[in-house]
Design goal:
Arc Repressor Mutant, subunit A, Chemotaxis protein chec, single chain, six-stranded antiparallel β-sheet, alpha+beta
């Protein structure tokens, strides 16, 4: 069985270049701290200010050559540590005094916040209860896995924990594609495939590992995933 396809995240250099291209194209007035803050807000991985500045040093030199209508000026700024000097990038027809963000403050890196389980977006659209057995396969109701966008021959990754099994549809268009990458090599995850015959089942081994054998199981359907728990 093949592993989930690897999704390549943009490098810090690519993220920095993208932020700078936008600022140059919009003819903005900006400092390297503005670039750093923009990179931190782009929704990708953690980025430190000094690392963004290191990447920007080379990129800005090239972009200034490609944009002769831009220049740099030294300006006075206020930082949390006191007065300082900063390099301002600006169009040649703009006065450096037009720059209003004199108070320079680095923001903390912004990460994507996971949606709580009780959030309306994560509310299960349908539920089914099935009695599991320890000596045989337990079939997932077809109405559950088809509503969750699973199809015959689809690859999946099952994340197994005591008292629950979460099954993710393994596809690049899955909303959990990044989550699946973190599960691929974990010992408590199983990679499988929905049978061509369309009988999507949990094995006795999966049920035993999650301590759900011989229990009434509740199947909750979400887009691109199925959550299996003990019926309470």
């Amino acid at each position: 069985m093949s592993k989930p396809a690897m999704q390549i995240s943009p490098t810090l250099a690519e993220r920095t270049e993208k932020a700078l291209k936008r600022m140059f194209s919009k003819k903005e007035l900006f400092t390297l701290l503005d670039v750093s803050n923009a990179v931190k807000k782009d929704g990708n991985d953690f980025a430190k200010h000094r690392e963004v500045v290191a990447e920007a040093a080379t990129i800005t030199a090239v972009m200034l050559l490609k944009n002769p209508n831009f220049m740099t000026s030294r300006i006075d700024v206020q930082t949390p540590k006191g007065p300082d000097l900063a390099t301002l990038f600006h169009p040649i027809n703009r006065n450096p005094t037009d720059y209003v963000s004199i108070a320079q403050t680095a923001i903390a890196p912004i990460t994507k916040v996971p949606i709580p389980a009780h959030h309306p977006v994560n509310t299960a659209r349908s539920q089914k209860t099935v009695q599991a057995r320890s000596d045989s396969y337990t079939e997932i109701p077809r109405t559950i896995w088809t509503a969750a966008k699973f199809k015959a021959n689809n690859e999946y990754v099952a994340d197994i924990h005591p008292s629950s099994i979460t099954i993710y549809r393994n596809s690049l268009d899955s909303k959990y594609a990044k989550k699946i990458l973190t599960l691929a090599n974990k010992p408590n995850s199983i990679i499988g495939c929905v049978p061509p015959a369309g009988r999507f089942r949990l094995s006795p081994e999966m049920l035993k590992a999650s301590r759900l054998e011989d229990c009434a199981l509740e199947f909750c359907q979400y887009t691109d995933k199925i959550v299996v728990t003990k019926k309470v």
